[in-house]
Amino acid sequence: MIRRPTARPGGPSRGPSDGPDGAATGRRSGRLRRTLLAGLVATAVVFPVSAAASADVPAPAPAAFAETASLPERYAANLTNLAEAARMADAGGRTGRAAKLRAMEAGGGARFFSFDGRGKGRAIEVFGDLETADRVTVLVPGSDTTLDTYQRFRAGAVVLQQRLQAEHSRSAVVAWLGYDTPGTVSPSVLTAGRADDAAAELGPFLAGLERRVVPDARLSLLCHSYGSVVCARTGTGPKVTDIALFGSPGTGADSVAGLPTGARVWAGRGAGDWIAHVPHLRLGGIGFGTDPVDPAFGALPFAAGSGGHSDYLKPGTESLNSLASIVLGTSRAATTPTTPTTDTAAITPEVSRAFA
C-alpha cells in the first residue's frame, strides 16, 4: 500500500517524485498499477465466459409500440412475442433457451414493458402497478445477466417488491435488463463502453417512465456491480430522487460531483463481497477509479451487512432492508461507513472473476 507523504518538522513534505527515492517510489507505483490492470485484462481474455449466450438464437423482432400505447397493451403484446420466441427456440434446437423463456412467462401473468428474445436478449419487467405506484424502483443488473440467467435477476426484483409492499402498498419495481451486459470475465467488463451504450438506453427510458407515473411519484435507481457503472453515466430527471450503488467496481468518476444527476447517491458493500479486492484504479480507459464506498467519493453510506456479491437482495438481509428504506425515503446514512479495502495485492482467483 502506498502511503501519503507526511510533513517533516522544520520543512515541507516531500512528494513521491521529489528526489531519487521519491522517483523510484513513483516508478514502482506506476508499475504496480500497470501490472494489476494488465493482470485483470489477461484474466478476462484467457478465461471463458460462464453464462454467455450465442448470438444466433432464433426469435421474432420485438413488438413495436406507439408512444401512447397503454401498459396492458404492451404487456399482452410482449407476452405473445415471448411465447413465439420460445416456440422458435424450440424449433431451432435451443431447448434450454426455450425452457427459460417459458419460465419467464410465469403462467401468463408476467408484465413485460419490453422484450427482445434475439441473441443474449433484453427484457424490462414490471412488478406492481406502475399506474398507481408513487414509489418506483428501477433495478439495473451487472454483467452476465441475459435471458439465460434471467431468473436470478427476477428473483431479486421479486424479493425487493415484496419487501417494499409490506411497508408501502403503492410500490413498483422495474427489472431493467435493457442493455447487452458484458461477460463476467471479458475485456469489455473492464471498460465503460457497454455502460455508455446502456446509459443511452436507460436515460430515455427513465424520461418516459417519469411521464407515465403519478405526479407525486419518486423514482429510485438501484444499481448492482457493473450496473453501477451504467447508472453513473445516466442523466436523470427531477423525479429520480435516489441512486444506490452496491457491489460496485467504481464508476469512472472521482466523486459524486462528477455524476450527471441531482439525486442523492448512496453506496454500500457487503463485508463478504469479493469486489472489495478489485483495484480501484483507472489507466488508459481500463478500470473505474475511486471506490464508491470511500468517503472521498462523497456518497451517503448505507449498511450492507455481511453478505457477498450476490446477496444484496436476499430475504431478511440488512442490505435489503437498507435498500428498501432508501426507496421509501426513510433511510438515514449509516453512522459507520464501509471501510474501503486498499490492499491491491489481494487478487485471488475468485476476485479475477470480476464485476459479475
Structure report:
The chain has eight helices and eight strands, in the order H-H-H-E-E-E-H-E-H-E-H-E-E-E-H-H. It is of the alpha/beta class and 356 residues long. It has an eight-stranded mixed β-sheet with strand order 1-2-4-3-5-6-7-8. The radius of gyration is 22 Å and the shape is globular.
**Fraction of residues in β-strands:** 5-15%
- What is the mean predicted local confidence, pLDDT? 83
Rg from C-alpha positions? 22 Å
Helix and strand string, N-terminal first? HHHEEEHEHEHEEEHH
Main sheet record: 8 strands, mixed
Overall morphology? globular
**Distance linking N and C termini:** 26 Å
Total count of strands: 8
Helix-strand category: alpha/beta
Count of helical regions: 8
Low-confidence spans = 1-20, 34-53, 336-356
Helicity range: 25-40%
Task: Describe the structure concisely for a colleague.
With 356 residues, this protein is of the alpha/beta class.
Element layout with pairings:
Blueprint: H1 19-46, H2 71-91, H3 95-105, E1 112-116, E2 122-128, E3 135-140, H4 150-167, E4 171-177, H5 193-212, E5 218-224, H6 226-232, E6 240-246, E7 264-268, E8 300-301, H7 318-328, H8 349-352
Parallel strand pairs: 3-4, 3-5, 5-6, 6-7, 7-8
Antiparallel strand pairs: 1-2, 2-4
